[in-house]
Design goal:
Layout (H helix, E strand, L loop, with lengths): L4 H13 L10 H9 L3 H15 L3 H15 L2 H13 L3 H14 L4 H13 L3 H13 L5 H6 L1 H4 L6 H12 L6 H13 L3 H14 L4 H10 L4 H14 L4 H13 L3 H14 L4 H13 L3 H14 L4 H14 L3 H9 L8 H14 L3 H14 L4 H14 L3 H14 L4 H13 L3 H14 L4 H13 L4 H14 L4 H13 L3 H14 L3 H13 L3 H14 L4 H10 L2
Length: 563
């Protein structure tokens, strides 16, 4: 909204009387002198700029303000011009205004920061380097913190190699200081020169062996090789046994290295000195679950709930899992119910609670759980709708399952998850026209959806229909996900339908290697049977049925070949 015209003159005087931040208060004579210096032309241009800005015409306002700054050389107008032009994304005009601002107010930290930011954003790296060198030269005893500011100053610069060159140049006189090497390490990391970054941070640690920020930065560089990060932290802690941040980092990195027992020991040691630290309590609880120490896990997670701090949703969720595994189903449902909608685990908690109710034959209560969850958390609506349809399918209520998905599709007709899941559910009732229509729509919406191509191709191959088309669809899926075991299974089954049993066996064995799924085993056994390797077929089926005694597709295959 624009200012009323009668207040614009007042706003102008106020705007011109302000520096970047609070300044020394001026006497009445000074303010009068400033007011009397306003000319009609300046006032007119200011009015134009303010009215344009108030109407959201930032481009016009920026141009008017920069013109005004250029003609008056007034740092207060230049400051306003810098702000408006920056917000209008007119970076070169903003830079011009920032230069005027710096000329008029050379001691202003805000003016310097604005100029540096704009020089970086507009790739004026030589000028920026020169100004940074000047700033560092007059930093005196504050040189260390100033060197560490380089990373933030240059953060928006897109040419990361240019940033590295600037940092190398401006830090050259200060290589006896650890902060200079830290700045170089940060620039090298952004430029994706990891070996250089490691070398620089090691230099920083040689100069300042107890510097926690440096070892923590080194750990970031080594996260892809967590055992090396562990080794670096252990060495640092041996030299600096009081370093709490390094000890916490070690406990976390041991998790990344999958050294769970050592990690739990590290977190437990930290917990001894910080008995009510919610992060440490939670970590010990989860690691105890990972290690199968359910008693300790439960006690730690319950302690977290008693404190009322930390990740309460996580504590309820994992305590629900513990209760579920202990077949304390009512308790588990109650715990899952206490996971709030803001949690990333909300949908999973609702799904587990519904599954437990369904296991007790309380299907409608389970559905109510999921529907209430969808109302409480719109972001999880699709996930919970799919969960309800699968719950109904498990109860052999396939038409109800499809109806649930159809209602959701009516509200979200192009949702990829709903299209795919409803197509798969249609297959259960042999509604192949619906399956094909929805998968084709999904492929049109998402041409790179590997599983949509695969599902349609497999449906055709399994029914021995339009095998050329089926092959093109499965080949497309395989090109998108060449190591997906279920797509490999589809190609194997297609080859079998085309009478190419030897090729079928190759695809199916690759699929079994990646995922020993019972339905893949059913297909492989059938191919081996046709190849007259019947003992091998029976062995494949027997191993699969032993591991998956309730799989219906495998059971149906065995029944066909036992006649």
């Amino acid at each position: 909204m624009s200012l009323p015209l009668r207040s614009l003159a007042t706003a102008l005087v106020a705007g011109l009387a302000l520096a970047v931040h609070a300044t020394e208060p001026k006497g009445a004579a000074d303010q009068a002198a400033e007011t009397s210096s306003l000319t009609p032309q300046i006032l007119y241009q200011f009015l134009l700029a303010e009215i344009a800005g108030g109407r959201g015409q930032l481009g016009f306002a920026a141009g008017a303000y920069v013109d005004l700054a250029r003609s008056t050389r007034d740092f207060r107008i230049a400051r306003r011009a810098t702000e408006i032009a920056f917000h209008a994304r007119q970076l070169e005009p903003a830079l011009e205004a920032a230069r005027i601002w710096n000329e008029g107010e050379p001691e202003s930290e805000a003016a310097r920061q604005a100029l540096w930011t704009l020089l970086a954003a507009t790739n004026h790296t030589d000028e920026l380097a020169g100004l940074l060198i000047q700033n560092l030269a007059r930093a005196g005893s504050n040189i260390g913190p100033q060197l560490l500011q380089l990373h933030r100053i240059l953060a928006n610069q897109q040419d990361r190699q240019a940033v590295l060159r600037v940092v190398d140049h401006v830090t050259l006189p200060y290589l006896t200081l650890p902060e200079a090497h830290f700045a170089r390490a940060q620039a090298a990391q952004r430029a994706k020169e990891s070996l250089r970054a490691l070398a620089e941070i090691d230099q920083a640690l040689q100069l300042k062996s107890d510097w926690e920020p440096a070892i923590l930065f080194k750990v970031q560089l080594l996260l892809e090789t967590p055992d090396r990060a562990v080794e670096a932290l252990q060495g640092f802690i041996s030299r600096n046994p009081q370093s709490g941040e390094a000890k916490l980092a070690l406990a976390r990195v041991l998790v990344d290295a999958k050294r769970y027992d050592e990690s739990r020991q590290a977190f437990t040691a930290l917990l001894e000195g910080q008995k009510d630290n919610p992060e440490l309590i939670y970590a010990v609880g989860l690691l105890s679950m990972q290690l199968g120490d359910i008693t300790l896990a439960e006690s730690q997670l319950r302690r977290l709930l008693e404190l009322g701090q930390g990740d309460q949703d996580g504590a309820h969720f994992y305590l629900g899992q513990i209760a579920e595994e202990g077949r304390r189903w009512s308790e588990a449902v109650d715990l899952y119910d206490q996971v709030t909608p803001i949690s990333s685990r909300f949908a999973q908690a609702r799904g587990r609670a519904a599954g437990l109710l369904a296991r007790q034959g309380r299907i409608e209560e389970a559905r109510a759980q999921l529907r209430q969850g969808a109302e409480n958390s719109p972001k999880d609506r699709i996930v919970l709708v799919v969960a309800e349809s699968k719950l109904l399918a498990e109860a052999q209520r396939f038409q109800d399952a499809i109806n649930v998905l159809d209602v959701a599709l009516a509200a979200s007709p192009e949702d990829p998850t709903l299209l795919y899941e409803s197509a798969m559910m249609s297959d259960r009732l042999s509604q192949y026209a619906v399956l094909e229509a929805r998968l084709r729509k999904l492929i049109k919406l998402q041409p790179e959806h590997a599983h949509a191509h695969n599902a349609l191709g497999y449906s055709l191959a399994d029914r021995n229909l339009r095998l050329d088309e089926a092959q093109k669809l499965i080949e497309k899926a395989l090109s998108l996900a060449p190591e997906d075991p279920f797509i490999l299974d589809s190609m194997g089954w297609l080859m079998f339908r085309r009478g190419k049993a030897a090729q079928a066996e190759e695809y199916l064995r690759r699929a079994m290697t990646l995922s020993p799924d019972p339905e893949i085993a059913a297909h492989l056994g059938e191919v081996l049977w046709v190849l007259n390797r019947r003992e091998e077929a029976r062995k494949t089926w027997d191993e699969a049925i032993h591991a998956h005694p309730d799989n219906k597709a495998l059971a149906a295959t065995l029944k066909r070949f036992s006649r």
